[in-house]
Amino acid sequence: MEQQETAILIASIVLVVVVIVMISLFSIFQKRKNSLLLQQKEAEKKFEKAIAETQIEIREETLRNISWELHDNIGQLLTLAKIQVNIAQDDPEKLAEVTDTITKSLTELRSLSKLINPDAIKSLSLTEAITLEIERFNRMQFVNASVTSNQEIVKLDDKVEIIIFRIFQEFFTNTIKHSKATKLTVDIRYDQDKLVVKAEDDGIGFDNSSFNNVKQGIGLKNMQNRGKLIGANVELTSQKGKGTSITLLYKYKKEGLPPLDEEI
Predict the structure, then answer these.
(1) Domain 144-264: CATH superfamily, name plus number
(2) Is the dihedral of CA 205, 179, 182, 220 positive or negative?
(3) Domain boundaries, the chain
(4) Transmembrane region positions (predicted)?
(5) pTM here?
């Protein structure tokens, strides 16, 4: 009888211990799940904030571009047309030149309208948006620029395209303002499993070691951090007297953020 009571007592104790362990494990699991969900929400908020900031930066850069083009390109064309009109008053044969100049001005305005219209910008693919930038550089004669690409076999998420476009817009701006380059080339390649975009200029370049202590380092870090937001790898290389290049590699993946253990 005592052995039976002892066995029942031991079984009860074991059962209680098992229940306590199960409750503890469930509690730990629930806490970890809640913690992961909280991290996911924070990552999503950070991602959305970064997207919003990037969109603002693109708009600001676009407005600066419009201002430059209105002043330096279209403004000069209209000034030239005014001068030609005055000349044509004494020499009617010059009216053809006036017509050509005004026609060119209208063409430039149509190109500029693509930048002004937000709906048009949203509807552009990554390749089209970058090509639009390259065409503007050539119109403004900032640099001899060209872009090559293959067919877009994958439709990227709009937010991914925004981030990639801003990375290269920042590189282009640095090329125009600081590199003293005469040539800029961009290549956009869609493979079966990844997108590779490379831009290269023939500017003055700089020592790669300067990444660690001057503005070039800050600029590279900004580009790399933007890349991390979408899980892309960004590499920037430069050499004094031999120009600067940037290569972005983005592996296609399902919609969503990078894994939570990835630094953002």
Answers:
(1) Histidine kinase-like ATPase, C-terminal domain (3.30.565.10)
(2) positive
(3) 144-264
(4) 6-29
(5) 0.65
